[in-house]
Every structure is written in structure tokens, then in C-alpha cells.
Write a structure and sequence with these properties.
Layout (H helix, E strand, L loop, with lengths): L3 E5 L5 H4 L7 E4 L7 E4 L15 E4 L9 H6 L4 E2 L6 H16 L2 H9 L5 H11 L12 E5 L3 H12 L3 E5 L5 H6 L5 E2 L3 H7 L2 E4 L13 H5 L5 E5 L8 H10 L2 E6 L4 H4 L4 E3 L8 H21 L19 E8 L4 H11 L4 E9 L2 E8 L5 H8 L8 E3 L5
Parallel strand pairs: 1-2, 1-3, 3-4, 4-5, 6-7, 6-9, 7-8, 9-10, 10-11, 11-12
Antiparallel strand pairs: 13-15, 13-16, 14-15
């Protein structure tokens, strides 16, 4: 019987780990020669990758803690869980927006510090509340930078609260576009979004193109007294530019999930300790999603929700399947088929998809490829691996 070993580098919600049948899977933090690695925030960049590893799954959206480029060269897909924590992050964004609009952290700190009798408290409350005058959300404009799973939920929720909503995401998917309320307006570009918004919330992944995407120039183009929220990644926003804008009064408040010393010491900054996905529901959703994707890849070679491999899903039609990641260059599939034809194997079904430099081929065969054929396929220049996928349980 085919069995798989799963190594966990972080605590993964039990409801997710239970998706792996114990008669066919071993799951543990200490395990030798794992077929798959599951993690959350563990930093893998300095970790040696065992030769046995077939895939890596992160119970979360961001993969900056994973050496994706290195794993791609080894033919190892990296899975994540886009959208599984969208509701949790959305709720925190809205909470942060309300806290900034009504100066709630500052007001709460003021009230907690009050001393004296009830009569003295009443006088202090009436005298101090003028320092915490806020604004209401209706008729204010929210600019949403990034319309993925989280951005769409934030945009739709803000509209329900009466806000006018602008969105910008050149790479928005068809699925997310369908989910977005039709009342959400499209910003012409980033500069248009910043210039027209009273509040800007950022929901983009960290890449070389998004590093300090929110810089001094863009902040200065915002309306005076605006609010900026960052629940994306710390480096997407230039913290020094934010502090300068807060000091000058250009920004009314900055709300972030990524504390830094200079930010924590600023009275107009609201910092959370990276709470975006910290709900029981989000952790369970992420665990279930990544476990299902990893299991489907190990058992059938199918790929969904990968950050480095193309989505490739082929319904299983035969007990003999080959999964072959390879370079995205001409003549690769032809060479693979030639090797199979040399053994006289009939191809029942096949699917080949590409993404960037990587192509991935799934082939269902009427009979098993022998070791000589497999060696010939693996020897093709550009083939990263060639894995035999028997029906699980056989």
C-alpha cells in the first residue's frame, strides 16, 4: 500500500491534519524522509530540503518565508491558501478603520487613565472628549489597492457601510471581478486612487514590484487628514514616509498589522501584532485547504493553489499516471511521448500546462512505464522529476 510522510514545521489545526487518512499517512513534527512539508510562519530559507520532498504547503497566503525559487528549480510545487483567511483579515481591516475614524485607541487610553470619584470622572470626560472627535464613514471614499480575496471582501463591506469605494488591481482575476460589487468604481491608476481617497487600504503581495509601493510621493498625493491601512506586508509601505506624513498632519492615522519601533512610539499609529489570520475559523480553513491540496498532489499529481506551478487538474482515468514537471521550452512533451512510444505504451489521457519557466505534464497510461523508460524521461534535458502515481491503496 502506498503511504506518505508529512512533516509539520508549525502547529497546524487538527481539523486539517485529520484530512490525511492515518492508514496511508504519517504526520509528525519529527519525521524522516518526508514526502511533504506543512508550515505556517516557519522560515525555510536556511533549511536543507530533504531529497524525498515532493511538495510544500503553507497554511496561509504569503510565502515569503519559503524559498520558492529554489524549490521551483527542484521541481517542487509550493501550495498556499488564498482566500481561506479573507473573512478574518476583512474583519480586522474594518475594525482598524473604525478605530482610526473615531480615535478609539486614544480615547480608550484616556478613559483608562482617569482618576478620582464618579463626579470627577464626569467632569474629566466632558472636558476631554473634544480631543477625540472623529468622522463617520458614509460619503467618505475608500481606496482599495489590490482586489484579491481580501481586497474584494473589504471593498464590498465598506460599500455596505455607506462608503464610496475605488479599486485598483491590474491583475484582478475573473473570479474576483465577479465577486466585486458593481458599485465599486475603478481607479485609472495608483495615483488616481491615492488622490481621490480619504482612506487607502493595501492588499497586495510583497514582490520586487510592490516593495515600498506606498511611498512618500503617493502619500503626499492623498487628501490632508487621510487614513492609511496596511494589512498586506510591512515592506509594501515606506514606514519613514508614513511617520513624516503623520507628523505633518498629511495623514490622520496609520493602521498596520506589522509593528516597528518608530511606529509603536507614534501616537497616531495603531499597531496590531500580526493578527490578520488569527481566528480559529481562519486557521482551520487554511489547514483544511492546504491539506486537501497537498493530498491531491501526492495521490493524483493534480495542482491547485500553487504559487509556482500552473494549475493542472486531470481526472484520473487509468491506474498508471506519470507526473512530470519540466522546463517551459519547445519539444519537451514530444520527447516525453517519444520515450513512452518506444516502450509501446498507449496514452489514455494527457494534460500539459505552463507557468513562467515551469511546465507540468500529467500523463495517464494504459500500462506501466518500466524503469528504462522512466530513466530515459528523467534524462531529458529540462525534465526536473518524473513521478509514478499508482492508485492509492494499490
Amino acid at each position: 500500500m502506498t503511504t506518505f510522510k508529512i512533516k509539520t514545521l508549525n502547529s497546524i489545526a487538527v481539523v486539517g491534519l485529520d484530512r490525511f487518512p492515518r492508514d496511508r499517512y504519517e504526520v509528525a513534527a519529527e519525521i524522516g524522509k518526508p514526502d511533504a512539508i506543512l508550515l505556517r510562519s516557519f522560515k525555510m530559507h536556511d533549511m536543507p530540503i530533504p531529497d524525498s520532498v515532493l511538495c510544500v504547503g503553507r497554511a496561509g497566503a504569503g510565502t515569503n518565508n519559503i524559498p520558492v525559487a529554489k524549490l521551483s528549480k527542484l521541481g517542487i510545487p509550493v501550495f498556499n491558501t488564498p482566500g481561506a483567511n479573507a473573512s478574518a483579515v476583512k474583519e480586522l481591516v474594518i475594525a482598524g478603520l473604525l478605530m482610526a475614524a473615531r480615535n478609539l485607541p486614544q480615547a480608550w487610553a484616556y478613559a483608562r487613565a482617569l482618576k478620582g470619584s464618579d463626579e470627577e470622572l464626569d467632569k474629566a470626560v466632558e472636558a476631554g472628549k473634544k480631543d477625540f472627535v472623529g468622522f463617520e464613514l458614509p460619503k467618505r471614499t475608500l481606496g482599495v489597492l489590490g482586489l484579491g480575496a481580501v481586497g474584494v471582501e473589504v471593498a464590498n463591506s465598506a460599500f455596505k457601510l455607506g462608503m464610496q469605494v475605488l479599486g485598483h488591481d491590474p491583475a484582478i482575476t475573473v473570479q474576483h471581478a465577479w465577486q466585486l460589487f458593481s458599485s465599486v468604481q475603478k481607479a485609472v491608476n495608483l495615483d488616481d486612487l491615492f488622490a481621490r481617497s480619504d482612506v487607502v487600504t493595501v492588499h497586495v503581495p510583497l514582490t520586487k514590484d510592490t516593495d515600498k509601493l506606498v511611498n512618500a510621493a503617493r502619500i503626499q498625493s492623498m487628501r490632508r487628514g487621510s487614513v492609511l491601512l496596511n494589512f498586506s506586508r510591512d515592506e509594501v509601505v515606506d514606514s519613514a514616509a508614513v511617520v513624516a506624513a503623520l507628523d505633518s498632519g498629511k495623514l490622520r492615522a496609520y493602521v498596520t498589522d506589522f509593528p516597528k519601533r518608530a511606529l509603536l512610539d507614534h501616537p497616531k499609529v495603531i499597531c496590531f501584532p500580526h493578527l490578520g489570520a488569527s481566528t480559529v475559523e481562519a486557521e482551520e480553513n487554511c489547514a483544511v485547504m492546504v491539506a486537501d491540496d497537498v493530498r491531491e498532489f501526492l495521490e493524483n499529481g493534480n495542482v491547485t493553489h500553487s504559487v509556482n506551478f500552473p494549475e493542472t487538474v486531470l481526472q484520473r482515468t487509468r491506474p498508471h499516471r506519470l507526473a512530470i514537471p519540466h522546463a517551459n521550452v519547445p519539444n519537451m512533451v514530444a520527447q516525453i511521448l517519444t520515450a513512452l512510444a518506444a516502450q509501446g505504451i498507449n496514452i489514455a489521457d494527457m494534460l500539459n500546462h505552463s507557468r513562467g519557466d515551469i511546465s507540468y505534464t500529467l500523463v495517464d497510461l494504459d500500462s506501466a512505464a518500466n524503469e528504462a523508460t522512466l530513466a530515459r524521461i528523467r534524462a531529458i534535458d529540462g525534465v526536473l522529476t518524473a513521478r509514478v502515481l499508482p492508485i492509492v491503496g494499490s
